[in-house]
């Protein structure tokens, strides 16, 4: 594992829970996914990299829409959960996004999707360059991360402009699991995208869905005022 990788043990511990519950967890099912899906193109016949596939929900959805999928995760158990879901329909690779994606060729991919994974990286520079390298000219990158405003306020940090390693306790089947991730300012998130020569197409701070309201009404009211996640769609230029 890369020296700056965090939360591998946590995700190894949570893997079975993810496979069982992530499909219907409100923050995933009724907040994150509708926003991410709204940014995706038609994927039929497209080659897609699911970068940080976790338990494979997006990989399964993409396959169902006719895409060919390469699914990556740094957790061997999460790769196993994805295998349980999609079988041999996708190429599954245990890989750390802190490292070069040497097993994916240049200009080979139509779409990279990364759902709530990139805030586990201390520095987004390398991964954005790698995403740019593997995408075909005109290819799309769609990703979601923790919203910098959310992490700054919830964890009561003093300096918004720092990149900091934070730790949170997640309730996983009534057991507390410590999860670490990096908080960074919006400038740092966007600089990594733009300095890799992507063209920003959309920055989304979505409202929660009606389904979310039915599931978690108090959290729904909070999300109407304070964003939880940030969503980006960027494109590799068609030509230089």
Tags for this model:
240 residues, alpha/beta, 7-stranded mixed sheet, two-stranded antiparallel sheet, 9 helices, 9 strands
Characterize the structure shown:
The chain has 240 residues and is α/β, with parallel strands linked by helices. The chain contains nine helices and nine strands. It has helices at residues 8-21, 26-38, 57-64, 76-86, 125-134, 148-154, 186-195, 210-215, 217-223, and strands at 47-51, 68-73, 91-94, 109-115, 135-146, 164-172, 175-183, 198-204, 229-236. The strands form two sheets. Strands 3-2-1-4-5-9-8 form a seven-stranded mixed β-sheet, with helices on both faces. The chain has a two-stranded antiparallel ribbon with strand order 6-7. Helix 5 (125-134) links the parallel strand 4 (109-115) and strand 5. Helix 1 (8-21) packs parallel to helix 4. The longest helix has 14 residues, at 8-21. The protein is globular. The termini are far apart.
Helix content: 25-40%
Structural class: alpha/beta
Write down the overall mean pLDDT. Answer: 93
Shape: globular
Number of strands: 9
Integer-rounded radius of gyration: 17 Å
Order of helices and strands: HHEHEHEEHEHEEHEHHE
> Which oligomeric state applies?
single chain
Q: Could you give a short account of the major beta sheet? A: 7 strands, mixed
Uncertain residue ranges: none
| Sheet with most strands: strand arrangement | 3-2-1-4-5-9-8
Please report which band the strand proportion falls in: under 5%, 5-15%, 15-25%, 25-35%, 35-45% or over 45%: 25-35%
Give the helix tally. Answer: 9
N- and C-termini, Cα separation: 35 Å
């Amino acid at each position: 594992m890369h020296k700056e990788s965090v939360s591998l043990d946590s995700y190894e511990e949570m893997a079975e829970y993810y496979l069982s519950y992530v499909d219907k967890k409100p923050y995933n099912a009724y907040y994150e996914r509708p926003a991410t899906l709204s940014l995706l193109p038609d994927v039929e016949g497209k080659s897609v990299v699911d970068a940080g596939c976790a338990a494979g929900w997006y990989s399964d959805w993409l396959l169902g829409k006719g895409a060919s999928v390469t699914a990556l995760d740094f957790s061997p158990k999460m790769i196993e959960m994805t295998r349980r879901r999609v079988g041999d329909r996708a190429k599954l690779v245990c890989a750390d996004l802190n490292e070069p994606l040497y097993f994916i060729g240049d200009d080979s991919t139509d779409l990279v999707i990364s759902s709530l994974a990139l805030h586990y990286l201390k520095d987004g520079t390398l991964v954005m360059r790698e995403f740019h390298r593997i995408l075909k000219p005109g290819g799309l990158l769609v990703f979601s991360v923790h919203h910098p405003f959310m992490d700054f306020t919830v964890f009561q940090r003093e300096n918004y402009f720092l990149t900091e390693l934070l730790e949170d306790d997640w309730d996983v089947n009534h057991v507390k699991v410590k999860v670490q991730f990096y908080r960074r300012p919006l400038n740092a998130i966007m600089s990594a995208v733009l300095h890799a020569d992507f063209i920003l197409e959309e920055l989304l701070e979505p409202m929660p869905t009606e389904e979310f309201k039915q599931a978690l009404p108090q959290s729904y009211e909070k999300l109407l005022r304070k964003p939880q996640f940030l969503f980006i769609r960027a494109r590799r230029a068609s030509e230089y």
